[in-house]
Write a structure and sequence with these properties.
Mean pLDDT: 88
Oligomer: single chain
Bound molecules: heme C
Order of helices and strands: HHHHHHHHHHHHHHHH
Structural class: mainly alpha
Low-confidence stretches: none
Radius of gyration: 32 Å
Shape: elongated
Number of helices: 16
Strand content: under 5%
Length: about 450
């Protein structure tokens, strides 16, 4: 991503640690949101498909999609904005490396926008469809309604469901692909040994590292979607009110089942992901966090089992909180692993940063290359001579004020201020600090003692 390289500044090792930290803070809510969006859209779509004649299923489909999408602003804040920030952060971390992470995330960003539009269309069409079909019922009973209106209502009430299912299906598939590229990009960042090898997004499809992490993501997505439903239907603020028994049973059954299936695979996949990490990514804290994740999962099983055994579904709330922690622990673990694995790259970036900072400061090797005399001869002679007034004052008159003070003169050169109103103001010559200093040194050397 060439254009991003221009936005990126060299970073010191301290800044890089800070970016890793920020990355964790952005990844946690983002990944949880995307997982729930993917799982929720799938569930809703599936039950809407099965629910043509079953009102309970339709109600579940509508409630689910409304729950997981929340609202458009929330979707933007939890989905698109963080993804954009993530791209910028990875561009900083992987600056000058050959990793295709940033390209993968950019592709996933574009796909994500499309998926987002489709899924929210699917969501809002539920209400729209409700309105049109009630209208149809009313129109069929009333006489004297314009036949064109009648026709339109009839037509829309039969095409809308079709369009809606399309929007849901494509939205879901595109979100699935977007997530795959996202996970692929993030996984690549953990494997510097593959940066040169994985040079196209298609390579993700046969990279075992990517596939195992994506499987983890899918299972985690199922688990957290089910847990979110339990949390919001039965736990949050005492649970939803108007839930009649059959509906409650359905929600409970579906939510518990998908949470259970997802969560059962997680420990295995977690270990598999640990195993695929490069050796230099592993450290005590990476292992520690993996173990902590597995422990948390066992706690979650405990509460899930309680629900299956027929105890209060309220425990679903705890399952949700535990799974959020599992996400957080997994993400922190991966960032530590990335930090470990990319130490060499971080060091290179740090070296570049030092060179860059020295150039700005004007110390170090860079200094030798800058010639005060050259700059003076190109920029200053047009307006100044030693003892004649040109556009600017003769140096004989103005230099004594500076009393051989290089810093003071360099300051004026960098930032000319109004001095003598019988002259026009001196335009800023756009010199860097070290260049201005070099000119000042040269001027004192050349004219010193002549006034
Ligand atoms: C476009 C014409 C122009 C160029 C180019 C220019 N100067 Fe000047 N310079 C002026 C003018 C006009 C003044 C008087 C400004 C005033 O008194 O407000 C001035 C004033 C100064 C002064 C006197 C400041 C004081 O304290 O009275 C110094 C020193 C100076 N210039 C240095 C330089 C150096 C070094 C360069 C080259 C890097 C340079 N100038 C390039 C027009 C120019």
């Amino acid at each position: 991503m060439e254009f991003l390289d221009k936005l990126v500044l060299p970073q010191s090792a301290e800044h890089i640690s800070l970016i890793h930290f920020l990355l964790i803070m952005v990844l946690i809510p983002f990944l949880i949101f995307v997982s729930i969006l993917l799982g929720g859209t799938f569930l809703s779509w599936y039950y809407e498909l099965r629910g043509r004649k079953n009102l309970l299923y339709r109600r579940f489909a509508k409630d689910t999609i409304e729950t997981v999408t929340v609202s458009i602003p929330v979707g933007l804040i939890l989905g698109l904005v963080p993804l954009f920030t993530l791209i910028l952060m990875y561009a900083q971390l992987l600056h000058t490396s050959s990793a295709i992470t940033v390209n993968a995330l950019t592709v996933s960003f574009v796909l994500f926008i499309i998926a987002f539009i489709l899924i929210y269309t699917y969501r809002y069409t539920f209400s729209f469809q409700g309105i049109v079909s009630s209208l149809r019922n009313v129109i069929e009973k009333e006489d004297g309604i314009d036949t064109i209106v009648q026709k339109d209502v009839k037509r829309y009430s039969s095409t809308i469901p079709f369009l809606q299912m399309r929007a849901g299906l494509y939205g879901m598939i595109i979100l699935f692909i977007a997530s795959f590229f996202f996970i692929g990009g993030v996984t690549t960042s953990l494997h510097p040994e593959n940066w040169d090898k994985i040079q196209s997004l298609f390579a993700f499809f046969y990279s075992w590292d990517v596939i195992s992490r994506f499987l983890y993501f899918i299972m985690a997505s199922m688990a957290i979607t089910g847990a979110t439903l339990m949390f919001l239907f039965f736990y949050w603020e005492g649970g939803k009110e108007d839930l009649d028994e059959p509906y409650k049973e359905l929600v409970k059954k579906v939510a518990v089942r998908i949470t259970l299936i997802g969560a059962l695979f997680l420990p295995l996949l977690l270990l598999l992901n640990l195993w695929t990490l490069p050796k230099n990514a592993l450290s005590g804290s990476v292992f520690g966090l993996a173990v902590a994740g597995i422990f948390l999962l066992f706690f979650a099983y405990h509460f899930l089992y309680a629900i299956v055994r027929g105890e209060s579904v309220k425990s679903g709330g705890y399952v949700f909180m535990l799974l959020v922690l599992v996400f957080a622990v997994g993400i922190v673990k991966d960032q530590i692993a990335m930090n470990n694995a990319t130490k060499t790259h971080t060091f290179q970036l740090h070296e570049q940063y030092i060179a860059y900072a020295e150039e700005l400061r004007g110390t170090g090797a860079e200094m030798v290359a800058i010639s005060g005399e050259n700059i003076y001869n190109t920029l200053c002679v047009a307006c100044h001579q030693f003892d004649t007034r040109l556009v600017g004052p003769p140096y004989r008159e103005v230099l004594p004020k500076y009393d051989d003070d290089v810093e003071k003169l360099a300051d004026f050169i960098r930032n000319p201020v109004r001095v003598d109103t019988s002259y026009p103001p001196m335009p800023n010559q756009g010199l860097r600090p070290n260049e201005a200093r070099a000119v000042a040194v040269f001027m004192f050397e050349r004219y010193g003692g002549m006034y």
